[in-house]
Amino acid sequence: MAIKALEINSKVIHLMKPVTSADYTAKTVLTNSAWEYVELWLKRQNSDKAKRALFYWNQACNFNS
Q1: Beta bridge partners of 8
Q2: Which residue, among 43, 37, 41, 44, has the nearest Cα to 16 in the 3D structure?
Q3: What distance in Å separates the CA atoms of residue 31 and residue 17, rounded to the nearest whole number?
Q4: If you average pLDDT over every residue of the chain, what do you get?
Q5: SS3 34
Q6: CB 36 within 8 A of CB 54
Q7: Who has greater pLDDT, 28 or 55?
Q8: Is the pLDDT reported for residue 23 higher than 90?
Q9: Euclidean distance between CA atoms 55 and 3, whole angstroms
Q10: How many Cα atoms are found within 13 Å in the side-chain-facing hemisphere of 22?
Q11: Res. 14: pLDDT tops 80
């Protein structure tokens, strides 16, 4: 059995938001970039660890570009 990509309006759909416990009241992030998704997620966290991680994430993104 071959795997077929899921398409809507001739565009391939990718899973970008893994859910372990659904929170349907939270805002949904729509992006096609994993870099941007992680950056937005880190910005929404309220901890010093997340702020430090965001610094290194942005640095890694710049190295990747």
Answers
A1: 11
A2: 37
A3: 10
A4: 85
A5: helix
A6: no
A7: 55
A8: no
A9: 38
A10: 1
A11: no
Q: Residue 43's pLDDT band (boundaries 50, 70, 90)?
A: very high
Provide the Cα torsion 52, 20, 16, 63; round to 10°.
20
Placement of tokens 């809507």 in the chain? 8
Q: Which residues contact 32 (CB under 8 A, 6 or more apart)?
A: 14, 16
Q: What is the DSSP letter of 9?
A: T
User: What span, in angstroms and rounded, lies between the C-alpha atoms of 20 and 12?
Assistant: 23
Is residue 12 classed as helix, strand or coil in its secondary structure?
strand
Structure tokens belonging to residue 53: 């991680």
Q: What is the pTM of this model?
A: 0.56
Provide the residue count of the chain.
Answer: 65
Backbone CA torsion sign across 49, 28, 9, 6:
positive
